[in-house]
Amino acid sequence: MTKVSPEVGDKMQEEIVLSVSADVSFASNHFPKYKIGPNNQILEEPKVDPKAPSLKEVVAQETSLLVEQQKRLSVRDLASKFDKNLSAAAKLNDEARLREVASLEGHVLLKKLRDALESIRGRLAGRNKEDVEKAISMVEALAVKLTQREGELIQEKFEVKKLANFLKQASEDAKKLVSQERSFACAEIESARAVVQRFGEALEEQEKNSQASEKQDVEGLMDEVQEARKIRIRHQPSKVMDMEHELRALRIQIREKSIFSVKLQKELAISKRAEENPSRLYELNGSETLGSYLRIQPCSDKAPELLKCSIQWYRVSSESSKNEPISGANKSIYAPEPFDVGRILQADIVSNGQKATVMTTGPIEHAAGLGNYVDTLMRKPNTEFNVVISQTNGQDHPSHSVHVFHVGKMRMKLCKGWITKARESYTASMQLCGVRGGGNAAAKALFWQARKGHSFVLAFESERDRNAAIMLARRYALDCNVILAGPDDRA
Known about the structure:
This protein is of the alpha+beta class. The chain has 7 helices and 17 strands. Among the domains are: 80-207, ATP synthase delta/epsilon subunit, C-terminal domain (Single alpha-helices involved in coiled-coils or other helix-helix interfaces, Up-down Bundle), CATH 1.20.5; 282-359, Immunoglobulin-like; 370-480, Roll (PH-domain like), CATH 2.30.29.140. Strands 10, 11, 12, 13, 14, 15, 16 and 17 form an 8-stranded antiparallel beta sheet that branches. The N and C termini lie far apart (147 Å). It holds the Pfam family SCAB-ABD.
């Protein structure tokens, strides 16, 4: 058995290194790991890398994604996608070429390594020679493995080339679709421009027509103005003023005659009733309007004295003949209140078992301008009236000093300076109505029950203030879901 010295081994290593071509480039700085399988077959240990899928899997995945997104992508996006995939296929083709070059370099390297081992085998003997022969067989097995790998690379190259052709064709189709859609869009834009142009022409024509018509209207107005100026020049201003004064005088005369006509009609109705009933004993005197008072007077010598008779006033609805007694109205004088507007008033006089009836000729009329006055007062949060207390809880009030009666949206108050006589919110127990009796001053007085057991009779400065206070308080109370009326008037 030949012994190899260290010097001889170093020389052999130097010869092996020098015999390898310098043009060979190694993919890594170490040889791959192999193992001996059955029948002395050289097997390469597989490299498992789960993070790096194979080229086929990548191509299949990209193809499936393209097929899924083809339906929801626009034509332009699809074309750009195909262009990207085409560039990726070209890149894969370039990588396959590089692998082919590396494979050729591997064949050259294995050939040179085998030649070096053959040269070494001739110089060695014994156990070292067997090792060299095993190395030579391993090199030959690597060559076979490399040839198989080249076949797989060729197949992959063919598939990549096929995919590249498919993507190139798809890209061309997408470009055709893009150009077709662009042509359609251009045609639609041109048609839209034509429509807009037609609309613009129509609007210009309409504007011209409108300007012509306006010009004609202006000319007609100018002619009318000139004609009016001529008419005004012909008539002197003094004559126009005289005509206006005459018109005003005529209106005043017509108003006075209408009032006089109403009075005559009422007197005529009274006279007709007197003729129909010659035996009547009493009659009503006074204006049948809100703000005045009605008085029962005897019209026959046989009529008993009113002081010895019992009197009761009633409200008669214009829709029905039902009589509604007015609580507390048992005097010969009665002043209508806002609740009586639109109703006929009737009074029954009973003496010694005999009853006489008097009634108004028509419904009580509203006072002129009272509604507008109340609407003006409602714009204020609180309205004040100057009053004098005539009675307190049914007893005459000795002092006649002026008090202030406040009518608010939520309550009413009676005070004098800082002293408050009564202050109550709107409740069901509160009562407010005109005074039912009391002589000629009844039209200016009202009855106010702030709460049970606490009442006043207030005299106002005018009939309008008294009626306005009643109407205003009833409207505010109605907003609080309270019906404000006199005794027994809610029924």
